[in-house]
Design a protein that fits this description.
- Belongs to the battenin family.
- Keywords: Lysosome, Membrane, Transmembrane, Transmembrane helix, Transport.
- This is Battenin.
- It comes from Rhodnius prolixus.
- Helix 5 packs antiparallel against helix 8, helix 7 runs antiparallel to helix 11 and helix 11 runs parallel beside helix 13.
- This protein has one domain: MFS general substrate transporter like domains (Growth Hormone, Chain: A), CATH 1.20.1250.
- The chain is 72% helix and 0% strand.
- The protein is mostly helical and 403 residues long.
- It contains 14 helices and no strands.
- The radius of gyration is 22 Å and the shape is globular.
């Protein structure tokens, strides 16, 4: 039997440093997406702040037989994603000043939580959501690009798992703390631990590599050509990137975010142990649970046909629109299982798209491709929010099948 090679004293520090780096990227994914998820989980409560000024919720319920916020949670989705889309469009074309970018991410995230929590007026709430969006978009496009300078692609796996954990922990923490009796203000202020943890990991744990554009690599791959860094050359990469990777990736996000922000509020079963607000929050928890499971599966399940994931997510959208209109599923548990499946598909699309880019794109083009692909989901999430608002309003006018 072959004896296991003993680890040398020189190898131990490197192994420990590699472990700290992977833990840090898991934390980066968690902290970067945490505020974004919390804002979406709190969307139903945030919009109630707007509606309570004129009693509009009661008017809608009395007239349409549905409990609907007048503005719909799609409005929060737009505020939570539109600034991010601008950041993700512009950032890949600028130098990767990673320390400046992460500092900006941490600061804007903290101010976002504070403004939404203190609720000075409705515009300060929206500004807080916008700052959270800026933080999430800048952090994602910057840290994904930064992964290509580390020697192992496991940083992509741990980042993806962390973003999935953000969905699960963020939605669950918000729902659980509210159910325990904490106010939304106290709950949101407690979330300031997230940007603090991100700052600690970035400047306290990670051993940052020396960035050399001629030697960006993953594992043993090394580029043989100089990095394509001019604007014209980067634009030339876009058609292939969009058709093969970004289009199916973006469609998955279009379908699922239309469901989450356009339909979740309308999937209300009145004769259950959960009230309307609780059902909305726990839909978010189940969705994020599915996302966490599939985003943590990179080294276990590999799916190369990402267009199939887009088709399956489109079928989920059709099923849940029909449920809102006709109420044919009858039981809350069935809808909850569909929502969990929706999250599994969304997370699988994310992790497999970035895995394919890291494996299939030429090393010299990976930094730009990783950053630019994150623009695709932002575009489609924005489109989902735009469509969700009028769709929500029209569906609210239909008689509820649940009464």
């Amino acid at each position: 039997m072959e004896e296991r090679r003993q680890e040398t004293p020189q190898e131990r520090p490197k192994r420990w440093q590699g472990l700290k780096t992977m833990i840090s990227f898991w934390m980066f994914g968690l902290c970067n997406n945490f505020g974004y998820v919390v804002m979406l989980s709190a969307a139903h409560d945030i919009m109630r702040e707007f509606d309570e000024t004129d009693g509009s919720v009661e008017k809608v319920k009395a007239f349409y037989k549905r409990e609907c916020n007048v503005y719909g949670t799609g409005a929060i989705l737009l505020a939570d994603i539109f600034p991010s889309i601008l950041i993700k469009l512009v950032a890949p074309f600028f130098p990767l000043f990673i320390h400046v970018r992460v500092a900006t991410t941490v600061i804007t995230s903290a101010f976002g939580f504070i403004l939404v929590a203190l609720k000075w007026n409705k515009w300060s709430i929206i500004l807080g959501v916008i700052l959270t969006s800026i933080s999430s978009g800048l952090g994602e496009t910057s840290l994904l690009a930064y992964t290509v300078f580390f020697k192992t692609k496991n940083v992509i796996s741990t980042w993806s798992s962390g973003t999935g954990a953000a969905g699960l922990f963020g939605s669950f923490a918000y729902a659980a703390l509210i159910n325990l009796g904490l106010s939304p203000t106290t709950t949101l202020l407690s979330m300031l631990v997230s940007p603090a943890a991100m700052a600690f990991c970035f400047w306290g744990l990670v051993e940052h590599p020396k960035i050399n554009k001629k030697e960006s690599y993953l594992e043993v791959d090394r580029p043989t050509v100089q990095d394509k860094h001019t604007f014209k050359e980067k634009v030339a990469l876009l058609p292939h990137l969009i058709v093969v990777y970004t289009a199916p990736f973006g469609l998955v996000y279009l379908f699922e975010y239309f469901v989450n922000q356009g339909l979740f509020e309308l999937l209300y079963f009145p004769q259950t142990f959960l009230n309307h607000h609780s059902q909305y929050r726990w839909y978010q928890v189940l969705y994020q649970t599915g996302v966490f499971i599939s985003r943590s599966s990179m080294n276990l399940v590999k799916i190369n046909n990402t267009w199939l994931l887009a088709i399956l997510q489109g079928l989920n959208l059709i099923l849940l629109v029909l449920e809102v209109v006709y109420g044919y599923m009858r039981y809350l548990i069935i809808v909850m299982l569909v929502v969990l499946w929706e999250g599994l598909l969304g997370g699988a699309s994310y992790v497999n798209t970035y895995r394919r880019i890291a494996s299939e794109i030429a090393p010299a083009e990976r930094e730009f491709s990783m950053a630019m692909n994150s623009f695709g989901d932002a575009v489609m999430i924005t489109l989902a929010g735009i469509i969700a608002i009028p769709s929500h309003n029209q569906l609210c006018k239909l008689k509820s099948p649940y009464y």
